[in-house]
Amino acid sequence: MSDLAKLLAASALLVSCGSDPRQWPDLDAAGVPLGPVCRSGNYWPYGERGDNHMHPGRDCIGCHTRSGHGPVFTVAGTIFNAPHEVDDCFGYDSDTRNHTAAEVQIVDGNGVAFTIIANRSGNFYTTYPLRFPLRHVQVRAPDGSINEMFGAASSGDCNSCHTRLGTVSPLGESPGRVTMP
Ligand code: HEC
Ligand code: HEC
């Protein structure tokens, strides 16, 4: 597909997402309401165009690895506003200039502490060499409150486990998205 065709296909999708959010289920398999599908109301419209804000919620490291394109991240993912928001929905608006910056704080397998500041689509990423599994992972809001992962993260591909509906891994069931505290 040409780049233009991709862009058109992506914007067609964008329009249908905006006009009919109910194309996504409202309830999980147990009948529990999933909450907002996209609190920001804005979606990534540019398909595969390489960008810091691309594909919030999708599997960053997996796609870059499979496609052989894009930076080789050690850790990457997205902070969302709600636990079950959909792929390509812009997540938490983290902005250092507006004092709304959210951080992902990590202690790696060697005990090295490392902090990543998320961007305005909620995406965060680094190519810094870290040792896995990560011993501690937490999201820190601008007010200092914290949302901490209990287990050690075996990989830095946060969104591969933190999908919209969550995944089952050796660590247990992920609760859906990485969210603000
Ligand atoms: C479906 C595939 C896919 C997914 C998912 C994906 N990317 Fe990419 N990404 C790419 C491709 C392809 C490129 C290279 C584009 C190019 O070279 O023009 C790229 C490039 C990038 C770049 C480099 C931009 C630049 O200026 O050169 C960044 C940063 C990036 N991706 C971040 C992310 C983050 C963060 C995520 C997850 C939230 C993500 N990507 C998810 C395919 C993907
Ligand atoms: C192998 C799958 C997996 C990976 C990779 C992973 N997580 Fe998790 N995450 C989980 C599971 C399972 C839980 C729930 C149990 C727990 O807290 O350990 C969780 C819980 C969390 C929580 C607490 C959620 C809550 O609402 O209480 C946060 C925050 C979190 N993860 C952030 C991250 C970040 C950031 C990354 C990437 C550095 C990451 N996770 C990578 C599986 C994963």
From the structure above, extract its key features.
three-stranded mixed β-sheet, four-stranded antiparallel β-sheet, globular, alpha+beta, single chain, binds heme C, 19% strand, 181 residues
Task: Describe how the helices and strands are arranged.
Layout: H1 3-19, H2 60-67, E1 75-80, E2 103-107, E3 113-117, E4 123-126, E5 136-140, E6 146-149, H3 158-161, E7 168-169, E8 172-173, E9 178-179
Parallel strand pairs: 1-9
Antiparallel strand pairs: 1-4, 2-3, 2-5, 5-6, 7-8
Bound molecules: heme C (2 copies).
Residues 75, 77, 104, 137, 139, 147, 149-151, 153-158, 161-162, 169, 171-175, 178-179 line the site of one heme C.
Total DSSP helices: 3
Q: Strand portion, in percent?
A: 15-25%
Number of domains: 1
Order of helices and strands: HHEEEEEEHEEE
Helical content (DSSP H or I, runs of 4+): 10-25%
Task: List cofactors, ions and other ligands.
Answer: heme C
What is the arithmetic mean of pLDDT? 89
Number of strands: 9
Derived structural class:
alpha+beta
The gist of it:
The chain is 16% helix and 19% strand. The chain has 181 residues and is α+β, with helices and mostly antiparallel strands. It has one domain (3-179).
